[in-house]
Amino acid sequence: MAVAQQVFLRDAMRKLNLTRDMFSARIGVKRRALDSWLLPEPSHDFRVMPEVVRRFVTEIVENEALLEKYSDAAPRRGSLRDRIAINDKHQLLSVDQFTRDSVEELFYIADIMQPIARRQKVSRVLEGAVLGNLFFEASTRTRVSFGAAFCRLGGSVCDTTGFTFSSMAKGESIYDTSRVMGGYVDAMVIRHPEQGSVAEFAAATNIPVVNGGDGSGEHPSQALLDLYTILTEFSRLGKLLDGAHIAVVGDLKYGRTVHSLVKLLALYRGLKFTLVSPKGLEMPTEIIEAVAQQGNHVIEQTNNLEQGITGADVIYATRVQKERLQSEQIRGYGPEFQINAAMIERFATPDTIIMHPLPRDSRPMANDLSVDLNKDPRLAIFRQTDNGIPIRMAIFAVLMGVETLVQHSMRDVTWSPPTHIGPDDAIFHGMD
Ligand code: CP
Description:
- About 1% of the residues have low confidence.
- The protein is globular and about 65 Å long.
- The two termini are 21 Å apart.
- 39% of the residues lie in helices and 12% in strands.
- By secondary structure, it is of the alpha/beta class.
- The longest helix has 19 residues.
- The strands form 3 sheets. The chain has a 5-stranded parallel β-sheet. Strands 3-2-4-5 form a 4-stranded parallel β-sheet, sandwiched between helices. Strands 1-11 form a two-stranded antiparallel ribbon.
């Protein structure tokens, strides 16, 4: 089975580090034609790419790869799962496991997963495998999307949620819980309120373990889907991530999603980060130092939201992590900290992407990301959540060593999914 043309083209653009405008110019076709080849197949405007274009693009990418091979760049070694392994174990605990090269390889696999995530195809590559979803802290997205991703690859899921209904409430240790679960299931996703706890689970088993969020530590799969969303949106807008301005807003002290995301973004070059937080909720120094050590980035910190988001390419908002506040007296953001339609109108650009890892606190006093942006096509929050499925499928496929089997395993679905999932989805929602 040939690689789907959308996957083929997106991979070529990533390998060549070209925007859609630059790529269409490089291969000598109109941007409109390229856009139509990149649409999902059920779209009205989808067109089949001519075979001669595929051959030409393959030649350009191969020539580029040859140049790279004979340059000083370090050569790739081994499978992706071996390259991101920790102590020879196939686990995903931190974004520190990735390089720019390996993260983009994961995104290539996520692209391959898109027809399954969009319910056009099914696959059974994980048939017989069982996932243990251990969530000792509240979750909707991470728990359900990891479960759905495993099921869509043919596996099945066993869940336990909260301490109350686990034997940890009877004093069982992390070591014992992890060793026992390793005898029941083939992979585990764990969320736990203490930083470093998921690494303890991982040390007590040899099955794949994924960090679904450890206290205010990390949330690597969220950061991966966020970066994938940014690259996808930038591709649509004709922008490159290198050199972009990213405003990260809110509770940067306890927000684990932003800890992972800024480290992952730092793999790119020449970014401007504006870190906007209320006093007392600033980004931890060790993360700022880690980012500052690479990529010629500019990092600015401010308590002034208007100044921080002005002209940004991405505004990434976060909720106050009230469940983690210690001595701080903050109950929610003040109104001057709310990102809403009026503020976006004044300080954002027509191409700014507005993101949030969700959940957003929609209660009036919280002043979290406003619902009055719901119909604004720049709001990418539900495109983010949708991208959680292909990214998490790619993570499982890599950790369980089946990523090369997926393409050949796909067959058509037998039911009819809706063309638009949400009533407010923007017209381009279905685009790559
Ligand atoms: N973004 C995120 O982690 O959401 P949940 O808490 O619902 O899993």
